[in-house]
Task: structure prediction
Amino acid sequence: MKYLAAIFLLFSINAFAVEDTGQPQNVESVTVLAVSSMVAVIPVLSREYSREKSVDLNAVFEAPYELINKIQAGDPADVIIASDKKWLDQLQEQGLIEPNSRIKIAGNRLSLVAAKEFKFDTDSKRMEDILDYIHSRALMVMADPENTTLGARSEEILRNVKKWDKFKRFTVIAPTSAKTVDLIIKSQTAGIIYATDARLYNNNLRYIGDIPQKLHEPVEYYAAVVLGNNMEEARKFLTYLSSEPAQKLLEKAGFVVK
Result:
């Protein structure tokens, strides 16, 4: 699929090497490690920042635990963007990020979706009834609850509606939020994904409804400076992420901003 190919191409990108922006040859650079649910918006933010500041931005997209592993292994990293503050807590405890640099940049909602080919034929609006309908017809795709924020929130939702015991043995586990979307479409089934992904892939998905926020802890994205030799440039990029232009771009992509 075209969108999946695009995701793989973005796994390690130079934000604006594809066009001549008139920048000098010896420009500063910043390497951003971000969770895969931001794969569509980080390149947009990178492009605008690169044009404004003449700074190259390279981005790598992975599940949160993979990003942490990269930083622990000493891979190039100046900024990390995670989908739950607990991931940054872990890095802070290990002395790998600058504690006072941590900022919240956006939030996200969760949506219940199905592949366009999935036969969805129920008039009920109750989340419990809809989940039962899906369970009776297919395996539901779920992000890894141990290693992803999306999976942890999905499990929390199923527990809160008293469906976890029913579903836990009848789900297909995906390693990332992006792979969750991919498997839902390819397997012609249903699942819980980020609202931003439901919007991004609406041509391939049937939107069923947003998950009531009372059923799960909020999804909040936090950014921090990784300790190293490029911290000054990293701090400048975090300042940009909090700026009005960046917040408008995040909102345009479907993220929740203050």
The longest helix spans residues 42-53. The two ends are 34 Å apart (CA to CA). Residues 110-210 form a domain with the D-Maltodextrin-Binding Protein; domain 2 fold (CATH 3.40.190.10). The longest strand covers residues 28-35.
